[in-house]
Amino acid sequence: MKNLQDILYKVRIKEVHGSTDIDVNDIQIDSRNVKQGSVFIAIKGEKTDGHKFFDKVIEQGVVAIICEALPKKILDNITYVQVENTHEAVAYLANNFYNEPSKKFKLIGVTGTNGKTTVATVLYKLFTQLGYKCGLISTVQNMVGETVIPATHTTPDAISLNKLFKQMADENCTHVFMEVSSHAIHQHRITGVYFSGGIFTNITHDHLDYHKTFDEYIKVKKKFFDDLPASAFAISNADDSRGTVMLQNTPATKQYYSLKAMALFKGKILHNALTGLQMMINNTEVHFRLIGEFNAYNLLAVYATAICLGENSQKVLTALSMLTGAEGRFDYIIGNQLIIGIVDYAHTPDALENVLSTIRKLRKGNEQVITVVGCGGDRDKTKRPIMASTACDYSDKVILTSDNPRTENPEEIIKEMEAGLNSAARRKSVSITDRGEAIKTAVSMANPEDIILIAGKGHEKYQDINGVKYPFDDKEILKKLLNSNL
Fold first, then answer.
1. Global pTM?
2. Which of 45, 104, 354, 433 is paired with 330 by a 20 to 30 Å CA distance?
């Protein structure tokens, strides 16, 4: 139980009706979860507006309502607090309600278009290997020590996030690594959270359905670093064209990693094969189990973070050499006919190009590269023709299929992808709406030692069609087909 006055600390208040010197049991943004003694924060979302549920939450026993617009009828037995922005307010309320949990461990945020999940996951695995009790908040899953907590969003809402932080603090986690999405920054989900460090991986074409322009997307990512405390460190990819801009105004200590430029954390790829990466990192030669140039950058980001956190270089590199990446990130299977299957979450043109250019470099001779790719519904439409074109540029055969169509017609999404293909690309591509059939067709086309890439969904265990999540696992389907006698 908390006092409302105490948990309103830092909230920008416009007007108050009623007393703030009252006890509250919990805070809620979902009207369905409100009970006796709750504080309800009315959030204006993309689909619903919490301001419409005042009557409902009052019936359920709410003691205070935090809102941007006051209702016409003010009740004497309810405290109403009008604020500038309820998204921002709920972040401060949650942070205060759970006693500023992010200050009780070293919290590292990872942001960028690609690589967030791998960097956060490998950091979690590395520090666990080094003997620490760690937390992980990622697209794939959340971890408190060894306990798995399923993930619903890349970055949870502010209440869920701070509740998770409290659980991690209560379980004595010393280090927590989390993905920080652009949505989370823009929607104030991390407002009030205390970061010990931040990592920038890269920035490319993504989420323009939400941010509208690339400049806005960049500004949102940059805000994460602008808001870091002076006591924190900020690590950026010097080889990304926006790598320096990201840290331009941060008060945190700036550090850079690079494969191409001068940087404190310098890497060089010596050998890149399906058996892993042979790299030189700051004059030490190491073999890693991760594959591809994009993972060379991810490994450098992890190494740089560990050193900034005060770890011994030799111990870090030794532990890193034994670790695997995140599920659904360049996950590969070798079938019983020596066909190689790769499942990857690549769902942006740049990520797809990275994976396919890595595959091209790993080819020994005349193996075919067969790519199965789709684009998600209700998301950035401008990348659809680029995704199809990229797949055809780097592959011998391409199957365009559905991803998570959500509320859109999958056949219309595929048509928008096809619009990016020239006549040569059209000759090497085929469109199959059913994703299961598309994967099956790819396997039937393959000869021994050919490489099949299933792109777009990675770790996901479902396909989202018209609001229903049907069981669907690219890796399991591919594994089963590669080990059958098709």
1. 0.86
2. 433
